[in-house]
Write a structure and sequence with these properties.
Blueprint: E1 4-13, E2 17-20, H1 21-24, H2 32-39, E3 43-46, H3 51-66, E4 75-79, H4 90-98, E5 104-108, H5 114-127, E6 133-141, H6 151-154, E7 159-169, E8 174-182, E9 190-191, E10 210-211, H7 213-235, E11 244-247, H8 252-262, H9 273-276, H10 283-293, E12 302-309, E13 313-320, H11 342-353
Parallel strand pairs: 4-5, 4-6, 11-12
Antiparallel strand pairs: 1-7, 2-3, 6-7, 8-13, 9-10, 12-13
Length: 359
């Protein structure tokens, strides 16, 4: 009997504190019209809690939707490029917080493509019989590595988490086509210099996201569109067979260009970039969760996930969704309220770069 991997649960966790375009007008030379016209972003979230806390809540919501408890999870894949520690991996904290005592846990870093990389990995492990239930989380606290005096990057990124549960099934579901790619020769055009162990002892060096925006934009449009076309062909689909494109929410112009290449009606493209900005590995599971909440994923629906990010990585998957599109249960818990303003949350960044007075 064939073995497949079905998405049975989904969830998200978003910090309550909003950084709007109007707020950014106070700290960099920009405007709401400039940001919106170039990215489609209106606001983004800034977290007052650790990345593992966002991951844990998104994971619990996904498990509730699947109708399972933590004891039934075999593996936790935590896709992130902003772990709160390198040793141990942030996944260790998430596993402990969830009480998933029987689960293995690991971080996976493919930057903005991390969720799709993790999804293809989880699907493959389940099909091979190495796991029956995988909790896949995408989580980022990108505000921690932002220079809020650099308008080319600080307008784009935000914090958040999303998660899905994948479980073994005999009905055809899961990945029907996939592409995972990288061009390591261009890794430096989107990176965080001086991070990690490349220059031991350079703790005083500036550590922030830097990006050559126009080059990244051009490559993202090509890579996401090419990968999407490839997985659609692998699945044996025509464009009309696609129920929903759930793309990485990096830039609305990139998403629009990908949809045009596929000749896909904009009504079949999931967009929430206006509300959260680019949350890297978290964008697709957050968007998928909101698409399900809005009734935009039909039973047995055909979905395409597509992403592009630092590395330079890209990934896409043609996905057959399961029969059930409603959660088995929901939890009322939320992240704790913040007692700090957005400016107080960003103050460490201001102090680090030393070019702004406290607002």
């Amino acid at each position: 009997m064939s073995r497949y991997a079905e998405i049975t649960g989904w969830g998200k966790a978003l910090p309550p504190t909003v950084l709007s375009n109007a707020d950014l007008e106070l700290i960099v030379e920009t405007s709401d019209d400039w940001i919106t016209s170039r990215s489609g972003i209106k606001e983004r979230r800034i977290s007052h809690v650790a990345a593992s806390e966002m991951a844990e809540l998104a994971g619990r919501r996904a498990m509730a939707a699947a109708g399972i408890d933590a004891g039934g999870v075999d593996l936790i894949l935590n896709a992130t490029c902003t772990p709160e520690s390198i040793i141990p991996a942030s996944a260790s904290y998430v596993q402990a917080m969830l009480g998933a005592t029987k689960a293995g846990a690991m971080d996976l870093n493919a930057n903005c493509s991390g969720f799709v990389y993790g999804y293809v990995m989880a699907d493959s492990l389940i099909r091979a019989g190495a796991a029956d239930t995988v909790l896949l989380i995408g989580v980022e606290r990108l505000s921690w590595v932002m220079d809020y005096t650099d308008r080319s990057t600080c307008i784009l990124f935000g914090d958040g988490a999303g998660a899905v549960v994948l479980q073994a099934t005999s009905g055809e579901a899961g990945v029907l086509g996939s592409v995972l790619g990288v061009d390591g020769t261009m890794a430096d055009i989107l990176c965080v210099p001086n991070d990690g162990t490349i220059e031991p002892g350079s703790a005083s060096a500036v550590t922030r996201i830097v990006m050559e925006g126009s080059d990244v934009f051009r490559r993202a449009v090509t890579a996401m569109a090419d990968a999407s076309e490839t997985v659609v062909r692998q699945a044996g689909w025509e464009v009309d067979d696609i129920d929903l494109l759930v793309p990485h929410q990096a830039n609305q112009r990139i998403i629009d260009a990908t949809a045009r290449r596929l000749k896909l009606d904009p009504a079949r493209v999931m967009l929430n970039i206006h509300a959260y900005g680019n949350t890297s590995a978290a964008t697709i599971p957050i968007a998928l969760t909101e698409a399900l909440e809005a009734g935009r994923v039909p039973p047995r629906g055909n979905l395409v996930f597509a992403a592009f990010g630092g590395g330079l990585t890209w990934a896409a998957a043609a996905v057959r969704f399961g029969e059930r599109v409603m959660p088995r249960a929901e939890i009322e818990d939320d992240l704790p309220a913040s007692d700090r303003s957005v400016w107080e949350l960003l103050q460490p960044n201001f102090d680090y770069f030393g070019r702004l007075e406290r607002l």
